Amino acid sequence: DETEFRNFIVWLEDQKIRHYKIEDRGNLRNIHSDDWPKSFEKYMKDVNCPFKIQERQETVDWLLGLAVRLEYGDNADKYKDSTPDGARNTDNTAKNAEPLINLDVNNPDFKAGVMALANLLQIQRHDDYLVMLKERLTQDAIAKASQSKEGLPVALEKHILGFDTGDAVINEAAQILRLLHIEELRELQTKINEAIVAVQAIIADPKTDHRLGKVGR
Asked: What is the DSSP letter of 87?
């Protein structure tokens, strides 16, 4: 409902976000004005919302996230030790042991998310998205990922990601995943080179003696 949507935006600004001074909220509060969409578009730009006014669901989600972040920032001491009402009487140990127990892998949103992540990281896709996950979540893959490796520190800021998710934390995670993927490709190339050398050693003419610079008898 358009009226409810506009009232919702005004309530968020008045009660939680408070980006404008009270005297500057008049155009946004005038929800029956024909110019309200222009006022809302300006408001989105002023709060640095990355979405367009046509993307209502994304805009609502983003503004709610901003409101929650500001609310928490103003009352960090109050909220930092809070626990959801529904979780107070549950066995947290059991829930932590199975964090994905309620995950529905047949959910279209989950499938779309897996494919979108594959596109972002530019890794090879598969017709069956579960196969993509299995290849990364096998026992061998987990054991390999758990092995500690010594190496030189990497300055992530010096590596260009090539795309922007709109979230600095996700961008950094994507950079790390891409670097790990490149490392795996290099390791594969090294094994391929070693295999080629081994095959060449087997099929080489045994009469050839490189030390003497002679070929044949």
From this structure: G
Report residue 105 as tokens: 């892998």
Q: Which residue type does 146 have? A: S
The first and second tokens of residue 203, run together, are 């099929």
Nearest to residue 119, comparing CAs of 160, 157, 158, 165? 165
Task: State the Cα–Cα distance between residues 110 and 215, nearest whole angstrom.
Answer: 62
Distance CA 42, CA 53 (A): 10
Question: What SS3 state is found at 209?
Answer: strand
Render 189-203 in DSSP notation, one character per residue. HHHHHHHHHHHHHHH
Give tens-digit pLDDT for 11-66: 999 999 999 999 999 999 999 999 999 999 999 999 999 988 888 889 999 999 99
Residue 190: burial class (beta carbons within 10 Å; 0-12, 13-18, 19+):
exposed
Burial class (CB in 10 A: 0-12, 13-18, 19+), 51: middle
Q: Reduced to 3 states, what is the DSSP secondary structure of residue 214?
A: strand
pLDDT at residue 152 greater than cutoff 90:
no
Distance CA 32, CA 9 (A): 13
Q: What is the dihedral of CA 198, 203, 204, 206, to 10 degrees?
A: 110
Find tokens 């279209």 and name the residue: 108
pTM of this structure: 0.40
Chain segment 91-139, per-residue pLDDT in tens:
555 555 555 556 666 777 777 777 777 766 665 666 676 666 665 555 5
